[in-house]
């Protein structure tokens, strides 16, 4: 069952490693769905679609630090568990599990440090936002920060939660 609101995490720019991160908080919704019954991947896809974040893939999480400077990202964990890092190589470590949702503002670094066999997520993005994979580059940080700042705010939270009030 969904908890009343998400955990929030502030992730500052990391000039040393070239990760822009974001002034907007990362949102982590714990146990948002019951991933032990039915088809949790389809449940996340339906949920994200209903809130205007079209799902685009089912996969794990890359094992290297990366970010998307042109899109916000919603990740619905539908199978397994993982130990991840948010914020780039100098970021903080967190555990996520089936049923959790992460909402990453554009620019926030993320990587999988360890995962159970079969760990998988659904990835979704607001309409019109195209994601790409970037790795930190201190020399390109200024341009990455400008791209992140230009990403428009989504019209809805991918799970119908409190994103709009927390990101304004």
Describe this structure in words.
- The protein is an alpha+beta fold.
- The protein has a single domain, classed as Jelly Rolls (Sandwich), CATH 2.60.120.10.
- It is 15% helix and 31% strand.
- It has helices at residues 40-50, 141-150, 163-166, and strands spanning 7-11, 22-29, 55-59, 73-79, 81-86, 92-97, 101-104, 110-115, 120-124.
- Strands 1-2-7-4-9-3 form a 6-stranded antiparallel sheet, covered by helices on one side. Strands 6-5-8 form a 3-stranded antiparallel sheet, with no helix packed on it.
- A hairpin with a 5-residue loop joins strand 5 (81-86) and strand 6.
Q: What is this entry, summarized?
A:
By secondary structure, the protein is an alpha+beta fold. The protein has a single domain (7-152), classed as Jelly Rolls (Sandwich), CATH 2.60.120.10.
């Amino acid at each position: 069952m969904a908890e009343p609101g998400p955990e929030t995490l502030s992730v500052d720019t990391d000039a040393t490693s070239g990760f822009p991160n974001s002034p907007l908080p990362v949102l982590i919704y714990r146990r948002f769905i019951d991933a032990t019954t039915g088809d949790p991947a389809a449940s996340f896809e339906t949920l994200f679609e209903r809130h205007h974040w079209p799902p685009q893939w089912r996969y794990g999480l890359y094992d290297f630090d990366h970010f998307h400077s042109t899109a916000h990202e919603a990740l619905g964990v539908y199978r397994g568990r993982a130990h991840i890092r948010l914020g780039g190589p100098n970021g903080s470590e967190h555990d996520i599990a089936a049923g959790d949702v992460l909402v990453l503002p554009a620019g926030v670094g993320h990587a999988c440090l360890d995962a159970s066999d079969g760990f998988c997520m659904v990835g979704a993005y607001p309409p019109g936002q195209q994601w790409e994979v970037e790795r930190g580059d201190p020399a390109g940080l200024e341009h990455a920060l400008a791209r992140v700042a230009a990403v428009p705010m989504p019209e809805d939270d991918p799970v119908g939660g409190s994103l709009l009030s927390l990101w304004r």
